[in-house]
Prior knowledge:
34% of the residues lie in helices and 15% in strands. The chain contains 18 helices and 16 strands. Helix 2 (39-46) packs across helix 4 (67-75), helix 2 packs across helix 7 and helix 8 (158-169) crosses helix 18. The chain binds flavin-adenine dinucleotide and iron/sulfur cluster (SF4) (2 copies). Flavin-adenine dinucleotide is lined by residues 99-100, 154-160, 177-180, 185-186, 190-191, 195, 220-222, 240-242, 266, 300-301, 304, 455-456, 462-465, 467. Residues 99-100, 154-160, 177-180, 185-186, 190-191, 195, 220-222, 240-242, 266, 300-301, 304, 455-456, 462-465, 467 line the site of flavin-adenine dinucleotide.
Amino acid sequence: MAPPARMLRFVDVAQHMPDKRKAAERRRDFGEIYAEFSAARAAEQASRCSQCGVPFCQVHCPLSNNIPDWLKLTAEGRLEEAYEVSAATNSFPEICGRICPQDRLCEGNCVIEKGFESVTIGAVERYITDTAWEKGWIKPIRPPHQRAQSVGIVGAGPGGLAAAEALRRKGYAVHVYDRYDRVGGLLIYGIPNFKLDKQIVERRAQWLADSGVVFHLNFEVGRDATLAEIRAQHDAVLVATGVYKARELQAPGAGLANIVPAMTYLTASNRKGLGDAVPDYDDGTLDAAGKHVVVIGGGDTAMDCVRTAVRQGAASVKCLYRRDRANMPGSLREVHHAEEEGVEFVWLSAPEAFIGRAAAPKGRRKGAVREAVGSVRSLRMRLGIADATGRQVPEPIAGSDFDLPADIVVKALGFDPDDLPAQFAAPDLATTKWGTLAIDRRSFMTSVDGVFAAGDIVRGASLVVWAIRDGRDAAAQIHRYIQAKAGAAAAEAAE
Ligand code: FAD
Ligand code: SF4
Ligand code: SF4
């Protein structure tokens, strides 16, 4: 066995992120931007951890990952054990290691003494599980015994998939229904390749299929079956359908052509990367090559849109956000990447109106059918007093308007839930005032007996790591529910 590693090396070993490709090279393709750690580098970086008695990194990881333990095992070169510890709390560690906003979660709370940079937790987590795949340590799930009961899961995003994994391990027959033609939800059609290579998601989908999870793709609940019909086929159902209704822009000209929702734009680009024929992309509508692109919004979705436009070869890419850098909701790491890649941030600015090409500056083409957008008239903003949430409210500065040329405008203002009770023909399905599904926080059950819910459809637009956490917790509650029912049925039969 390897000797115990010397830890606490943050005092003499500097922080090193995995090598990042140069921005000029990144702009030309959709490949991931970080390389993998070498074994030596992973061990060295893991050894910087000071093995805190109360690890705040773990407290601020939504999955309560046992970070100090897998860092120590990595420092000692005991990677298979590190993988087992890591996989015990996280269904998809190689995904979280790539796309969690670590600066706001684990790494942002690493308490290495002031003046030293945090441990590179995400990169080590990714390295451990990528190595486990490479070495063949990750085998399909073979439950000790198969149970007679089945669970139906609506939605093949990270929430539904994490639940599917946990329920398969318990031996249930698991059926996942998704309206898309591929497994992964936003992991496949939202998040671009340069953050998360599609092959990473496809490998997990195949692994779940090899583990016995049955996928019913191109199957939309509400169109191909009602919720009650799905419920009737299974002992319990989990709804993990995410949130997709794009928030709309309220400004004159918002109906002009080529003003598109973020998901429309990103899905087209992701589908193209996957080799699909995409009519709206192939005819040039959603391809930013040679065009001026303005993205409106300041969250992670906006960052994905601007960075996609850069890679498509846009003539210019601007991000219009009504607050300033310090007050934007997106990860600062992502903003930094975008700036390196040539995105221009227009802070403290909001759209006032969209001007059609007919009225646009000389030299811009006129639209043939529905008039297309030609520019965005914008207003400068200042931050006023804080509202009830504590955030300063942006206020327009009169007479400060200016025009930005725009051939494509992408709306990335956030998402709301669809009206699921109507869509699922399930009027008894209770919702909150935000339209998300109402659940009992302890049991994860909705107002309909045996129907549970997890992920964004409960939280509102959130993070992959929270969807995984919810999926795992909901699976544990579904297990309790089914076993309680089975126990009650057995007791009744014995009477
Ligand atoms: P989803 O991933 O949305 O999956 C829901 C699934 O349900 C979909 O496959 C959908 O097709 C299916 N579905 C919906 N309705 C039906 C129906 N009626 N019948 C059948 N199937 C249905 N989070 C991060 O942590 N890091 C990031 O870097 C990050 N980047 C993001 C970038 C973008 C562009 C977006 C939009 C989000 C990003 N997020 C990120 C957020 C993250 O993707 C979500 O929080 C997470 O995917 C939610 O998981 P979920 O399983 O609840 O839902
Ligand atoms: Fe950090 Fe996310 Fe991994 Fe938790 S799951 S340790 S928050 S990267
Ligand atoms: Fe190690 Fe930082 Fe976590 Fe402390 S907070 S256990 S130093 S990773």
